[in-house]
Amino acid sequence: MSKHPHWQASPPAHYDGPRIVLVHGLLAGRHMQNHLLTFLRNAGYADTTLYSNHLSPTIIARDVQQAAHAGRAVALIGYSQGGFQVVKVSHLLRQSGIAVDLMVSLAAGGAGRLYPPQWGASVRRIPDNVKRHLNFFATGDTLGTDPVHSLNLAQAESGTTQVENIAYSLDDGVDHKNIVRCFPADRVPAAVRTLFLDRLQQELSALDTLSRP
After folding, report:
1. Do 79 and 36 contact (CB within 8 A), yes or no?
2. Do 34 and 62 meet the contact criterion of CB atoms below 8 Å apart?
3. Which CATH number is 97's domain given?
């Protein structure tokens, strides 16, 4: 579980919306709290918890199993180092027979690969228990984007997974920090608003009505 009191979700009783996991990047906990965590909770997603990139993926995977077994949708969203971590969590959930309805990675690559915990991590190989994966990266973001374009492209291990690779151009003005910016509205790059924030709300809205046998 998240150890930060403001990061741990406290959804109302009988809440049946998606279980959303956010994993922040290195030294980016407050940034993620002020932006994406606040954004999602303001949008009504009360069961959204923010986790540190230093927390074991095993603990995070265990933390979402109850919601998954109750038939609720599961969404994993990772930024920078957190993008590596959510892929690891998805692999662990596969071992437990749990599907991930939506997984999103943002700026998970580039210099981030040099961080020892990510040595050898296969952040671009998406396991077959993930139903939909959105992979965002920004040209010119050396911290989170690989220098060779093809190395940024996520690939599904199975045809049952839908993968979209979404690249911001230099003209979009998206850097490593504002790729997850939500506030204030006038400082959010237009491409982040339309390609990420609006899209994320659409995807999560679809999960709100998801039912499983």
Report:
1. yes
2. no
3. 3.40.50.1820
